[in-house]
């Protein structure tokens, strides 16, 4: 009961802090920075469905992020479609792309799956980079419009875009939370723990893995579309492997297989990166060893380390020996929340 109360307090605190952030920090640049961090939270949360809860690491996630960004850009700039119609179509295009790729990719397992999706991601990058007639190639796509007005609500300012992205981030986290705590989410976790055992008890592993893959690409497409409308200029570099590395770093630092991990990882790394801007490309000399140390000592990231400490404290208080922290029911309940 106490854990539920604490969890509820944490959620309320995070939502209230997000709502009052523009009033506390009125600087437009910091608002823009936090808006992009929220966009990455959506993208990493989608990756977490597949990698964290189903156990399949897709290295094509940046490619689907780019598909979402370019779909919205092309539909609004070249086709001149209404923004919100284009936004909905973008989600459909990205999900359909995920379905087609997943049907083939999920016939492989473990490192073969990772290698295959890495190749798919690089192919997406090459298509965007070389197909100049459609995507503009290295010149990129400019003039992407801001989100269209909804009644009297306009989204042409930094403040309004901040709250719009915040809305989509909270909505995405709520949907993912409901999925994880549903029978479908527990099926994903069963596949992650032992796919062979899940098959033995009658779980359709291919169907559920494909569902997880499509959901992952759905949120990648959503984040890409929001990114395009906030930045208003996109180039092929958003599909490059360096973006995939950033997404993985956000997930691993925050905590893979947890709801709050993508939030912590994306926000912390985005702000730390901003403070290290003066190092430019040399900042990876700091992030590389840091990421290595986190993987070695805290393989489940910041949130995972907090969960472990909390589990130890609860077990010590109840005088219950911890046989395996990663599998204790208490930790699982905290993790899934």
Automatic annotation (TrEMBL):
The chain crosses the membrane at residues 32-51, 58-77, 83-105, 112-128, 162-180, 210-235, 247-272, 284-309. GO terms for molecular function: branched-chain amino acid transmembrane transporter activity. The keyword Membrane applies. The keyword Transmembrane applies. Keywords: Cell membrane, Membrane, Transmembrane, Transmembrane helix. It is found in: Cell membrane. GO terms for cellular component: plasma membrane. Its main location: membrane. It comes from the Bacteria. It is a multi-pass membrane protein. This is Branched-chain amino acid ABC transporter permease. It comes from Peribacillus asahii.
């Amino acid at each position: 009961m106490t854990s539920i109360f604490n969890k509820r307090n944490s959620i309320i605190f995070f939502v209230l802090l997000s709502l009052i952030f523009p009033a506390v920090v009125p600087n437009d640049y910091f608002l823009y920075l936090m808006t992009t961090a929220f966009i990455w939270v959506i993208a990493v949360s989608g990756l977490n469905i597949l990698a964290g809860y189903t156990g399949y690491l897709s290295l094509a996630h940046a490619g689907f992020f780019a598909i979402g960004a370019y779909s919205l850009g092309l539909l609004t700039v070249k086709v001149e479609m209404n923004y919100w119609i284009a936004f909905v179509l973008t989600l459909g295009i990205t999900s359909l792309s995920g379905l087609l790729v997943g049907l083939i990719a999920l016939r492989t397992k473990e490192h073969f799956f990772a290698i295959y999706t890495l190749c798919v991601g690089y192919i997406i990058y090459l298509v965007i980079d070389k197909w100049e007639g459609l995507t503009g190639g290295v010149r990129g796509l400019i003039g992407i419009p801001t989100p269209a007005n909804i009644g009297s609500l306009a989204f042409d300012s930094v403040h309004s875009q901040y709250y719009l992205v915040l809305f989509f981030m909270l909505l995405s986290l709520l949907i993912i939370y409901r999925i994880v705590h549903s029978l479908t989410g527990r099926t994903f976790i069963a596949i992650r723990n032992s796919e062979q055992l899940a098959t033995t008890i009658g779980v359709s592993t291919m169907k559920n893995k494909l569902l997880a893959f499509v959901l992952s690409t759905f949120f990648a497409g959503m984040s890409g579309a929001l990114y395009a409308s906030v930045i208003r200029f996109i180039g092929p570099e958003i599909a490059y492997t360096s973006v995939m590395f950033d997404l993985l770093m956000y997930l691993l630092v925050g905590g893979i297989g947890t709801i709050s991990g993508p939030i912590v990882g994306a926000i912390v790394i985005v702000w730390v990166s901003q403070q290290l801007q003066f190092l430019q490309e040399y900042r990876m000399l700091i992030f590389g060893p840091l990421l290595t140390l986190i993987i070695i000592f805290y393989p489940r990231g910041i949130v995972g380390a907090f969960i472990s400490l909390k589990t130890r404290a609860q077990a010590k208080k109840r005088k219950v020996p911890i046989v395996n922290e990663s599998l204790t029911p208490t930790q699982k309940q905290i993790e899934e929340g």
